[in-house]
């Protein structure tokens, strides 16, 4: 989707860093996590969560580790025109569009007030978060411990070279909208009530991911009609069928079965944490067509309908 050129955006909506090799302290609390579960999650997500095995060093929360000047320049990200020209500016404008859509829809549909997540762009080997130290292999992720969406800017090129997805603006925006979807789950309490320790095609882990896909589709449903409060014009131009297809292509590319097939390890549904390509596309489409938080309740459907 293209942004209307005349919208005004605030570069300070995102923070940036070069990443680092330092590990930050983790926030304590929550259920006991076994060594096996931590190692499995680390392998599946690319995030080094082994620090969760020893929280005796303290229960403080660190900001993203960064001792170097960030190479990501967002100073020019003040308009829709910049968003259409620079990827980092597209991230700024996408975040502001998501804020506007969820600021209206979350309260209207659920009665829950929207609180903005932090959004951090980084470029480096590692970054410290309240959920552990993430490597550049982690891809985008949401950390509920600090209510922050983290995105390594190299991911979009990896999405094309490794996963075979088209690197288009709406495909990039879908990825961000999916991670903001996890923040919505955090605000609604869905993340706390789900059992995120399991894997498998019908597990709570998969249901969470499919719901976040549906929430990303919900954003697309409203994005071209939700206006920038500073200018009174919609944030985005209504997407073309080709642009929508590129987002669907991205959803398909990050399906567990597709990733397993490309890696040559064989498809094993028992290990899934995000859902099959068909499921991810279908739930994204539900959100895009219906624009309803209730319609995105993946926990309310039977296993056979997931």
UniProtKB/TrEMBL annotation:
<dbReference type="GO" id="GO:0016020">
    <property type="term" value="C:membrane"/>
</dbReference>
<dbReference type="Pfam" id="PF04228">
    <property type="entry name" value="Zn_peptidase"/>
</dbReference>
<keyword id="KW-0812">Transmembrane</keyword>
<keyword id="KW-0472">Membrane</keyword>
<feature type="region of interest" description="Disordered">
    <location>
        <begin position="1"/>
        <end position="23"/>
    </location>
</feature>
<keyword id="KW-1133">Transmembrane helix</keyword>
<protein>
    <submittedName>
        <fullName>Neutral zinc metallopeptidase</fullName>
    </submittedName>
</protein>
<dbReference type="InterPro" id="IPR007343">
    <property type="entry name" value="Uncharacterised_pept_Zn_put"/>
</dbReference>
<feature type="compositionally biased region" description="Basic and acidic residues">
    <location>
        <begin position="1"/>
        <end position="11"/>
    </location>
</feature>
